[in-house]
């Protein structure tokens, strides 16, 4: 009987020891759950850190460092059929920049927008979005264009395999992007724009606001890539520019312009270099100003947008190079960007790391044979 009592006592001691060990190494299970469920949360004191709510979808960061925003918008020219490409571009731009800064978007189309396009775009952006239809007088060729002459010219360009030479819609687009996008009613309330194309990539985080930076540093036009224009698209463009320069010397900046970027012989010929305008951040005050207005009217009167295939990129690049101080044109070295086969990747290692870039520094287009980057570097801006 005594032996049985000793076994019971020993078993009880072992059980107590096991319970003690279990509580020691399983502290979570030793909490009194009744207290957890019934205990009131502590009242925060004046010195307690604020309780942060989880971020909500489509809210804009209110960090005091980025609270100041410029009067600016993104603008994309697209069609309903460009939806998937537009989503790729906007998604990348939101992830790399705009989810933090919250700038609005304007989408422009020569036709009415599909509800599906609007619904899916609005679902992924962090800010306001507006969809506009381009007025017919801004998109289609003007009445004074000789339709038969234009048709034959486009047919000949198509036979010669001039890129987009036979595509009337492309001619319309080039003219629209040269002088009409900033006249659209939805764009009137803005000063700055960032042009975005469907199906582009942004390789790096953009941690500072390019609009505010340009505003604070007297910049007017910003780019990432510079390329050569196709000679067959602009046979008479430069002689038309020279004619304007002779008739309107009052608009030409003489000493501190960027003429050396577009000409190696002081303007006698055009070297075909231009800023690749599918990415550009610029002030619409410049395009709306008297100098560019007169310049475009002079070029447009020749019919070169239809009898040849003048692109908006050389037209605007020439204007910026002649009318602006070269210091007012800015290369966005830190913005990693890809359009079609050509891309820019920051060449500075620290900049590349700071932007968490996923592009190859050595694979950048900047110093390839088709690039005009070295011409820009030679200006020493």
TrEMBL record:
Residues 37-63 are annotated as: Disordered. GO terms for molecular function: alpha-1,2-mannosyltransferase activity. The keyword Transferase applies. Keywords: Transferase. Coiled coil: none annotated. One of its GO terms (biological process) is protein N-linked glycosylation. InterPro entries: Glyco_trans_15, Nucleotide-diphossugar_trans. The active site is at residue 280. The keyword Lipid metabolism does not apply. One of its GO terms (cellular component) is Golgi apparatus. It comes from the Eukaryota. PANTHER family: ALPHA-1,2 MANNOSYLTRANSFERASE KTR1 (PTHR31121:SF6). Belongs to the glycosyltransferase 15 family. This is Glycosyltransferase family 15 protein. It comes from Favolaschia claudopus.
